[in-house]
Amino acid sequence: MRFFFYGTLLDGSDNPVAQAIHALLEPLGPATVRGALHAIPDALGWFPALLAGDGLVHGKVYAARPGFSAADLASMDGYEDFDPANPAASLYLRQELELTGGGTAQAYVWNRALPAGAVPIASGDFQEWLASRGMPQFRGAHGG
């Protein structure tokens, strides 16, 4: 199984879920998907939302290492507020997306209307957007 991360699940993020999951993933390198990226404000910091669109969203692809389990996948799904048994109520959906360089990967795609205060990220690069504005990354659950 392969994953495309573009936000708070990227390696180097300081949240405990990302740190734990990266012990079970092999980084394959930078990648892009077609879409539109927005930054969502929250009292705990900013997190990204990937939606359908014509732009490019930048992130990285990772492959599950041997030993990656259903419980590990459930932990990631829980972090992203994705309930496979109730997708309509989920904040994100885990979907198979086409990578622009070929191949596919699972990614967490925003599943709601954008909230007030959402900011489009024209560059499609959430980490660059945060750094260029000195914005704090979200320190709770969810964020691709």
Element pattern in H and E = EHEEHEEEH
Q: What is the radius of gyration?
A: 14 Å
Main sheet makeup: 4 strands, antiparallel
Count of beta strands: 6
CATH architecture heading: Roll
- Kindly provide the name of the CATH class: Alpha Beta
> In the CATH scheme, what's the topology name?
Hypothetical upf0131 protein ytfp
InterPro entries: AIG2-like_dom, GGCT-like, GGCT-like_sf
Pfam family, one: GGACT
Domain Gamma-glutamylcyclotransferase AIG2-like: 3-127
Protein name: Gamma-glutamylcyclotransferase AIG2-like domain-containing protein
Question: Top keywords for this entry?
Answer:
GGCT-like_sf; about 140 residues; alpha+beta; Hypothetical upf0131 protein ytfp; four-stranded antiparallel β-sheet; 6 strands; Gamma-glutamylcyclotransferase AIG2-like domain-containing protein; 3 helices; two-stranded antiparallel sheet
Written account of the structure:
It comes from Novosphingobium arvoryzae. The chain is α+β, with helices and mostly antiparallel strands. The chain has a single domain (2-133), classed as Roll (Hypothetical upf0131 protein ytfp), CATH 3.10.490. The protein has helices spanning 16-22, 70-79, 126-133, and strands spanning 2-5, 25-40, 47-64, 92-98, 104-110, 119-120. The strands form two sheets. A four-stranded antiparallel β-sheet has the order 1-3-2-6, with no helix packed on it. Strands 4-5 form a two-stranded antiparallel ribbon. The two termini are 16 Å apart.
Task: Compile the SSE list and pairings.
Elements: E1 2-5, H1 16-22, E2 25-40, E3 47-64, H2 70-79, E4 92-98, E5 104-110, E6 119-120, H3 126-133
